[in-house]
Amino acid sequence: MRFSITTACVFAFAFLSTAVKADSYADAIKEFCDGLEVTAPAENDVFVAGQNATVTVTRVPNSHEKTITGLDLYSVDSSGNPKYVQNTWVGQYQLNTQASISDDIPSSVSAGFYYYRVWVTNMINGQHGPDCIKTSRTFKVTTGSHTNDAGFTYYAQSLDDINYYKPEFAKGCFGLSVQSPQEGSTFKQGDFVSLVLNRDSASQTDSLTNIQIYKAVDGANNDESVEPVWSGSEALTNIFTYKNQIQIPADKLDPNAYYYYKLDVASQVRGETCSFQSGAFKITA
Question: How far is it, in rounded angstroms, from Cα 150 to Cα 234?
């Protein structure tokens, strides 16, 4: 199903002038997709590879007829990159207020975090309108389990092992990297620096809310914020660029120190905020 995102966009743009009164494509998608939520699998669900999972989608009813048309299964690798596993279901399942689809997780997958992307198609006058893509919470998959006589279940991988299950991934903090500035760069005070973010289309990151420059101090917990750059709310595209003029206060400027940008990003997971940072760089007078 992932290949049809271009088709979905074409349909969405085609209907902009006749189906909705919107100032932009984003406004149109919001009108069609607000009120949709994937409620299962849930945050604390654990599955063994090969086990059955139930995907549940809910909606707040409005005037747009909606149909579930596909499920894609994704994993999150150890570096925080979303990985397409496979399309697990294609069909036509009408969505009124709630719909559930049963799916078998492939028996060949490895342990880690996984999530579903659900394709919901809007029907307009009997025609295919914009597609909405919603994701489930990440859930844990293990390669095996054993339940003893006392009813306690043990898994092949410890559910607390961060080599498989990094806590930040459960908050939707993955699929985003800061491409620039790069590690080891040097800038002068007053230089304009391009902050470039690369967001995977399957990421659960949502919007940029804050940018600051930090000065690295021995021990990450001691790093010092030296320049507030920007705050607000800006939806993230797959490539996002922000240009900043470096203006470090004189008493915070040290040509031997390393600095980096720290970014706060709102997650698609309700109530969660992620932090990302650029490579470390030096600043000279």
Answer: 52
- Residue 20 confidence (pLDDT) above 60: no
Q: What is the DSSP string of 219-276?
A: SGGG-EEEEEEEEEEEE--SEEEEEEE----GGG--TTS-EEEEEEEEESSTT-EEEE
How many Cβ atoms sit within 10 Å of the Cβ of residue 156? 13
Q: Answer whether the bond into residue 228 is a cis peptide, omega within 30°.
A: no
108 touches 55 (CB < 8 A): no
How many of the other CB atoms lie within 10 Å of CB of 155? Answer: 17
DSSP class of residue 160? T
Farthest-apart Cα atoms in the chain, separation: 69
Q: DSSP character for 2?
A: G
Distance CA 60, CA 181 (A): 42
What's the rounded Cα separation, in Å, for the pair 49 and 109? 6
Among candidates 116, 60, 128, which has minimal Cα distance to 85? 116
Question: What pTM does this model have?
Answer: 0.87
| Choice among 2-16, 156-170, 196-210 with the minimum mean pLDDT | 2-16
Q: What is the DSSP letter of 259?
A: E
CB atoms within 10 A of CB 132: 23
